[in-house]
């Protein structure tokens, strides 16, 4: 073994609970472990990253990781932590999502089958689809009592007086299905460890119970803490929804900004969980950060490492350039190189006004651009004063009152950025 997996998780703050004997079990020889991934979208989001990082650390420790796509369970929905059932997916959508998720996992895990501990992707739909209800009731259901299932927190919560929805039979049996996955992987692949978030402990231990009762073997469990933010808001979410790994859903610029904007307390925690930096490197970074917190070295390093890991160095460079656009450190050529999605992400919420294309083609004078056509400024007089004070720039370059905006100024053939001083930004959109 190259390193002790449990110790690695512990110093990184990634260990919530482990079944007794797990560490010793992993130290004996190469073992196999799995993490289940819900395939309800064709991309992972950063909430999935902790489980993926656990699998990567597991592989780096010399063990064999399995990523289990929950094709069968994705058709049902997992009750833990949810108050409502999920939308169910058809086979075609599940197959598409699985392929997209595998492509993302390949950035983290080595799927090379030449390696003894090469990662493997499995889908529980493959072994559940031909399992009849009668067989399942006979071969699996009879081994676990209802009392045992009712004692799980995820079930208790949904059956408590606070829950208005109650719980369907389908959801109630979810822990048996997840438990059976563990038994199947134990029998077919000698997979002896399941990992997941702390809310999965009940489902995982149902699996270890099935391995004991049906497989006459011993399964192990490790859970990581659910990631939280210091201010109590939900990790991995913004007002616009989830932070996805897919660039079509979340641009690398927005992705980078999410990590850059973390609080000092969260950055010190996240840099251990979401990067592969060593303990010494991280302790040194935290020390440097404490000496000059205003420089935000910790947040910058975190944002850089995660953006390169999920996207690429080129995407990181573009995200940094895009970030500089807002803070006045960029040039007109930087602006011209922005793609439309990033442009709109950067200037989200900035006042916009639409002008007819003909006006730009004829040449739009600055007074019209600032007041008459757009109402960015309250009056033509205010626009004149700002221009006399040399406070106005078009696409980051200072202009005088006689400047005309033409189609040469258009970014992506559609936008012009006007600044008044350092603080006020306006967007002209040509329609």
From TrEMBL:
Q: List the CDD domains hit by this protein, alphabetically.
A: S4 (cd00165), TyrRS_core (cd00805)
At the top level of its lineage, which domain of life is listed? Bacteria
Instruction: Please verify whether the record's keywords include Ribosomal protein.
Output: no
Query: Which residues of the sequence carry a binding annotation for L-tyrosine?
Result: 34, 174, 178
Enzyme type, top EC level: ligase
User: What Gene3D superfamilies is this protein classified in?
Assistant: HUPs, RNA-binding S4 domain, Tyrosyl-Transfer RNA Synthetase
In terms of SUPFAM superfamilies, this protein maps to: Alpha-L RNA-binding motif, Nucleotidylyl transferase
Instruction: Name the reaction it catalyses.
Output: tRNA(Tyr) + L-tyrosine + ATP = L-tyrosyl-tRNA(Tyr) + AMP + diphosphate + H(+)
**Chain location of the short sequence motif 'KMSKS' region per the record:** 234-238
EC number of the protein: 6.1.1.1
Location of motif 'HIGH' region in this chain is: 39-48
Cellular location of this protein?
A: Cytoplasm
What GO molecular function annotations does the UniProt record carry, in alphabetical order? tyrosine-tRNA ligase activity
- Which UniProt keyword terms apply here? Aminoacyl-tRNA synthetase, ATP-binding, Cytoplasm, Ligase, Nucleotide-binding, Protein biosynthesis, RNA-binding
Say if the entry is tagged with keyword RNA-binding.
yes
Q: Which residues bind ATP?
A: 237
Question: Could you describe the subunit structure of this protein?
Answer: Homodimer.
Known role: Catalyzes the attachment of tyrosine to tRNA(Tyr) in a two-step reaction: tyrosine is first activated by ATP to form Tyr-AMP and then transferred to the acceptor end of tRNA(Tyr).
Q: What does the similarity note say?
A: Belongs to the class-I aminoacyl-tRNA synthetase family. TyrS type 1 subfamily.
This chain's protein is named: Tyrosine--tRNA ligase
Species of the source? Mesonia ostreae
């Amino acid at each position: 073994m190259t390193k002790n997996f449990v110790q690695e998780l512990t110093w990184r703050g990634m260990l919530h609970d482990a079944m007794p004997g797990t560490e010793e079990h992993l130290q004996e020889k190469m073992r196999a472990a799995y993490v289940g991934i819900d395939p309800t979208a064709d991309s992972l989001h950063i909430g999935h990253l902790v489980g993926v990082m656990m699998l990567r650390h597991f592989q780096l420790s010399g063990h064999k990781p399995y990523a289990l796509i929950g094709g069968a369970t994705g058709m049902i929905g997992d009750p833990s932590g949810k108050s409502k059932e999920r939308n169910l997916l058809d086979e075609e959508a599940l197959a598409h999502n699985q392929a997209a998720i595998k492509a993302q996992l390949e950035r983290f895990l080595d799927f090379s089958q030449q390696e003894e501990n090469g990662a493997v992707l499995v889908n529980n739909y493959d072994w559940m689809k031909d399992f009849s209800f009668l067989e399942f009731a006979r071969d699996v259901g009879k081994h676990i009592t209802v009392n045992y299932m009712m004692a799980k927190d995820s079930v208790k919560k949904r059956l408590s007086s606070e829950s208005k929805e109650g719980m369907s039979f389908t959801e109630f049996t979810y822990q048996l299905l997840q438990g059976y996955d563990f038994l199947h992987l134990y029998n077919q692949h000698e997979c002896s460890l399941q990992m997941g978030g702390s809310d999965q402990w009940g489902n995982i231990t149902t699996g270890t119970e099935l391995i004991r009762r049906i497989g006459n073997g011993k399964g192990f469990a490790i859970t990581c803490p659910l990631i939280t933010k210091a201010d109590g808001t939900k990790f991995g979410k913004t007002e616009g929804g989830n932070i996805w790994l897919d660039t079509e859903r979340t641009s690398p610029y927005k992705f980078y900004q999410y990590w850059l904007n973390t609080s000092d307390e969260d950055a010190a925690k996240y840099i251990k969980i979401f990067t592969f930096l060593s303990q010494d490197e991280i302790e040194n970074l935290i020390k440097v950060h404490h000496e000059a917190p205003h420089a935000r070295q910790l947040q910058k390093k975190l944002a850089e490492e995660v953006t390169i890991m999920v996207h690429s160095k080129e995407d990181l460079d573009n995200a940094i350039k895009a970030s500089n656009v807002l803070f006045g450190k960029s040039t007109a050529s930087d602006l011209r190189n922005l793609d439309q999605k990033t442009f709109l992400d950067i200037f989200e919420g900035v006042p916009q006004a639409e002008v007819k294309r003909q006006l730009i083609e004829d040449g739009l004078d600055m007074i019209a651009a600032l007041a008459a056509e757009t109402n960015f400024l309250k009056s033509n007089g205010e626009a004149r004063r700002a221009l006399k004070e040399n406070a106005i720039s078009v696409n980051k370059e200072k202009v005088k009152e006689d400047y005309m905006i033409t189609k040469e100024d258009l970014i992506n053939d559609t936008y012009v950025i006007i600044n008044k001083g350092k603080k006020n930004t306006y967007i002209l959109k040509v329609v």
